[in-house]
Amino acid sequence: MEQRRKSTVVITGASSGVGLQAAKALSQRGWHVVMACRDLSKAEKAAQTVGMPQDSYTIMHIDLASLESVRQFVNNFRASSRSLDALVCNAAIYMPLLKEPLRSPEGFELSVATNHLGHFLLCNLMLEDLKNSSAAERRLVILGTVTHNPDELGGKIPPRPDLGDLKGFAEGFKAPIAMIDGKKFEPVKAYKDSKVCNVLTMRELHRRYHESTGIVFSSLYPGCVATTALFRNHYPLFQKLFPVFQKYITGGFVSQELSGERVAAVVADPEYNQSGVYWSWGNRQKKDGKSFVQKVSPQARDDEKAERMWDLSTKLVGLA
Ligand code: NAP
Is the peptide bond before 176 cis (omega within 30 degrees of 0)? Predict the structure, then answer.
């Protein structure tokens, strides 16, 4: 009897937190997971710790901060002759205590380079691989966050994200420029700005390519996964109190396992076949644990901004 081909998903940043749990959940659903990670031995240990069967995953190197590394990853993936059925852009860094910006190998501010520019290049390159897949449905999912959205409690805390007119991008985004809007370096805002870019990228991918390719593009807010390593660069006291605050005050707390299940559902389950949308399970607005399509922030639904972000990012990553 002919064996059905396993679907393949690439997940960036699958060595910890949400990405690792998503990898586990998708392997349990019968997918082959390509764990795209910067630390190969950490990823191997992580996969073993959560009990992923050896033949359910492959680990491949990517450093999303480096455009060259992203291109190399795509070449290596293609050399593996696997078909790509889904791509999950999950990796991120959050460095709230930095006084001065760190720089990527190409000279860009590091958090926007990692969270946005690396993924922007990866999405554009791997669109080709998704198009070539024979799967009935192909999906590209980008992780969002509530902090991108000042309409939500979690997004009201300053500094608020603001891409301005993307002056920093237009001027090349290299030193001394450290912010997309070209203003003074603020590390928390840099993270939030990068997550606005993630949502704009998803919406622009949808506008440009959904109709012609049938690929489903979506984002999600998996809930506040307050125990992940994302907060490792924060004050130790913050790391202690944040989960408690999220559990008892905002109600947004979710476990790492549940966040991974949510990502896996958006990648694989038939009810998540809508393109161009942002899924949420809510914070205060609980809907009995059910997901719903949430309106994104005014900035993230600004079509003109999306186009400008797209054009400038295309130049910065060398696709123009
Ligand atoms: P995490 O545990 O810190 O995981 C981040 C992952 O990204 C790690 O695997 C990390 O690799 C990887 N990574 C970082 N820089 C990289 C680079 N240059 N190249 C390749 N991989 C890199 O954080 P998390 O909480 O799971 O966050 C995952 C996603 O969920 C992010 O997009 C975040 O914005 C989103 N999110 C999180 C929350 C939350 O409350 N935690 C809420 C909403 C959305 P290493 O293991 O090598 O460090």
Answer: yes
pLDDT, one tens digit per residue, over 207-246 is: 999 999 999 999 999 988 878 878 788 888 878 877 777 7
Residue 288 phi/psi, 5° resolution?
Answer: 55, 40
Alpha-carbon gap, residue 49 to 178, rounded angstroms: 38
pLDDT digits (tens, 9 = 90+) for 279-298: 999 876 555 678 999 999 99
For the chain, the first-to-last Cα distance in angstroms comes to 47
The span from the CA of 114 to the CA of 93, in Å, is 7
Q: How far is CA 298 from CA 148, 154, 302, in A?
A: 10, 15, 6
Which H or E element spans position 265?
helix 256-268
- Taking the mean position of all CA atoms in its chain, how far away is CA 313? 16
Q: How many CB atoms lie within 10 A of CB 270?
A: 7
Q: How many CA atoms lie within 13 A of 282 on its CB side?
A: 9
Q: Which residues line ligand 1 (CB under 6 A)?
A: 12-13, 15-19, 37-39, 42, 62-65, 90-93, 114, 143, 145, 195, 221-222, 224-226, 228-230
Tokens of 87: 């791509």
Q: Structure pTM? A: 0.96
* Cis upstream peptide for 53 (omega within 30°): no
Query: CA 26 to CA 49: how far, in whole Å?
Result: 16
Q: Which residues is 60 bridged to in the sheet?
A: 36
Contact 64, 119 (CB under 8 A): yes
Q: Which atom of ligand 1 is nearest to the CA of 89?
A: 32
Ligand 1 atom with the smallest distance to the CA of 15 is 9
CA of 18, closest atom in ligand 1? 26
